[in-house]
TrEMBL record:
<keyword id="KW-0808">Transferase</keyword>
<keyword id="KW-1133">Transmembrane helix</keyword>
<keyword id="KW-0548">Nucleotidyltransferase</keyword>
<feature type="domain" description="EAL">
    <location>
        <begin position="24"/>
        <end position="272"/>
    </location>
</feature>
<protein>
    <submittedName>
        <fullName>Bifunctional diguanylate cyclase/phosphodiesterase</fullName>
        <ecNumber>2.7.7.65</ecNumber>
        <ecNumber>3.1.4.52</ecNumber>
    </submittedName>
</protein>
<keyword id="KW-0812">Transmembrane</keyword>
<dbReference type="GO" id="GO:0052621">
    <property type="term" value="F:diguanylate cyclase activity"/>
</dbReference>
<keyword id="KW-0472">Membrane</keyword>
<dbReference type="GO" id="GO:0071111">
    <property type="term" value="F:cyclic-guanylate-specific phosphodiesterase activity"/>
</dbReference>
<keyword id="KW-0378">Hydrolase</keyword>
Length: 275
């Protein structure tokens, strides 16, 4: 992803100098410190319904590095996933999101959770404690998990998801269609939302096969009572096509970029002053 510009290149440069293992340990050490020093922040991206109303926001973590500037999660989440650091990162994110809830523009907020976090037998119990401490109900949360291997019965992952759902948390399969377990996920019936990977959205108006796949997924999902959110909506043509095909939620740069809460408040203040 080139959107970090120079920052991404500095990391890439260090990556060339250091062995893979040393690079990983280097990032790990810095990230551990960053969590302690509150150098991370959350940007929120809106999700809209068919009626054009904002329904929820997705929390996306960023690392505001003192030297390197803003680092995107794609550059550090996979490294955090290699150790217990991912649990610390996830806990930091949930705590910050809970603190932000009163200032969010929507009642519902989605957070991304790694498969590595869900593997911890007490993930859901800790989640429950964290939101209870903030006085929040599970209904306010969506947990997005990336499509991975099928979740076996009696696995820790599965039990955590069931626990979360019992709290009222909705479960979304992120990047649906990008992995390999797509139909298994549908058969499972343990999900509430499918988020169609943006690879399908990107060519929805130019590749008939992509629009046929999305239309079929929407039909199946409708029959199962599952919501379908299209990710990465960048043009009005894509948006119109996705509405036509039966998607029920829409997210993407066309509709709203991820942004820090402060920017939202300032924008609202500016709008109030301008009015
Ligand atoms: P994701 O959950 O699929 O999030 C969507 C990504 O697509 C975000 O990238 C978002 O900025 C980007 N995006 C949104 N709309 C558009 C669009 O219209 N066009 C394009 N090209 N991109 C769009 P981001 O923020 O860099 O996050 C990347 C991934 O990092 C996320 O993918 C998610 O898997 C992971 N991630 C983010 N925050 C967290 C977190 O707190 N915990 C964990 N475990 N993973 C996270
Ligand atoms: Mg997501
Ligand atoms: Mg996604
Ligand atoms: Mg993703």
């Amino acid at each position: 992803k080139g959107k970090n510009g120079g920052r991404g290149r500095v990391i890439a440069f260090e990556r060339e100098l250091l062995s893979e293992e040393r690079y990983q340990r280097f990032i790990e050490r810095e990230l551990r410190a960053a969590i302690l020093m509150d150098e991370l922040e959350i940007h929120y991206q809106p999700v809209f319904g068919q009626d054009g109303r904002q329904r929820s926001v997705e929390a996306l973590v960023r690392w505001r590095h003192s030297v390197r500037g803003m680092i995107s999660p794609g550059a550090f989440v996979p490294i955090a996933e290699q150790s217990d650091l991912i649990a610390k990162l996830g806990q930091w994110v949930l705590r910050r999101v809970c603190a932000d809830v009163p200032r969010l523009p929507t009642k519902v907020v989605a957070i991304n959770v790694s498969a590595a976090e869900l593997r911890h037998p007490d993930y859901a119990a800790r989640f429950a404690e964290e939101i209870a401490a903030a006085g929040l109900m599970g209904e306010r949360f969506i947990v997005e998990i990336t499509e991975t291997a099928p979740l076996h019965k009696n696995s820790a992952e599965r039990k955590n998801l069931e626990f979360l759902r019992a709290l009222g948390v909705r479960i979304a399969v992120d990047d649906f269609g990008a992995g390999h377990a797509s139909l298994g996920y549908l058969r499972d019936l343990s999900f509430d939302i499918l988020k169609i990977d943006r690879a399908y959205v990107a060519e929805i108006t130019s590749r008939p096969v992509d629009s046929m796949i999305v239309e079929s997924i929407c039909k199946i999902a409708k029959g199962l009572g599952i919501e379908v959110i299209a990710e990465g909506v960048e043009t009005p043509e894509q948006h119109a096509a996705l509405v036509e095909l039966g998607c029920t939620g829409f997210q993407g740069f066309l509709l709203g970029r991820p942004q820090p809460l402060r920017a939202k408040i300032e924008a609202e203040d500016a709008a109030i002053k301008a009015a």
